[in-house]
Amino acid sequence: xxxxxxxxxxxxxxxxxxxxxxxxxxxxxxxxxxxxxxxxxxxxxxxxxxxxxxxxxxxxxxxxxxxxxxxxxxxxxxxxxxxxxxxxxxxxxxxxxxxxxxxxxxxxxxxxxxxxxxxxxxxxxxxxxxxxxxxxxxxxxxxxxxxxxxxxxxxxxxxxxxxxxxxxxxxxxxxxxxxxxxxxxxxxxxxxxxxxxxxxxxxxxxxxxxxxxxxxxxxxxxxxxxxxxxxxxxxxxxxxxxxxxxxxxxxxxxxxxxxxxxxxxxxxxxxxxxxxxxxxxxxxxxxxxxxxxxxxxxxx
Length: 300
Description:
Blueprint: E1 11-13, E2 17-18, E3 21-22, E4 27-30, E5 37-41, E6 50-51, E7 74-78, E8 87-92, E9 101-103, E10 105-109, H1 139-143, E11 159-163, E12 167-170, E13 183-184, E14 190-191, E15 205-206, E16 211-212, E17 215-218, H2 232-243, E18 246-251, E19 256-258, H3 267-270, E20 281-284
Parallel strand pairs: 1-19, 4-7, 5-9, 11-18, 12-16
Antiparallel strand pairs: 2-3, 5-6, 7-8, 8-10, 11-19, 13-14, 13-15, 17-18, 17-20
């Protein structure tokens, strides 16, 4: 990770509320027979021109579907049924106002039960080409069958985070990037920017670090912050840092950790996460897990 970012604290950009708005990226689940409506994309790639997006679908950073600027993600999970696969529809800068829906880019995983990734070189509603929804810290996962004050759940996936600038390359399981910097191969030949690089045969050098899709895990030598003993929600998230890490998904504030808004989050509890800095993490070489760079399936 680029050395200038290492002193940045890990910041939970999710919780109960912030500035009187839901704090985090919201998601909604709809039934298999939710009607499709038209969707217009105005800026980047479009994977769908209609989808099961209800007018009341929550928009990130807003109280409702109005244009307030920012990322304004809209995440909709379609349940399986009547011969339909479960599907994930995601929009970036989604706006409804008086309808119909409009976005700046969108992405679709037509069978969310599969391990299929977005095609190499293709972005999504996320700069790294990853799905947003499955990589969020979710209150349901943390609380489990417990209570907000006594959670007993676990997060069993890397959690989405951001850096001010990613490297202008990606590693599996990402499929795209929007970054800066360049890399050279052994012998000094330039590697074309906005391309996939391999962790098993890494570049000889790069002018920056932090490829899209790279996973960082809390170092074994990093002590669990003392505040975790009285911050049970943060303690579960910190355990996930050790077991599954954080995954670089987009440009944004360095150390920004992304989750869902939920009234059950305890903002004071979550603030314990800020005791950690990015220097407490190390990159993980996951190349031995890759079955195919077109699939999120792992070898073990």
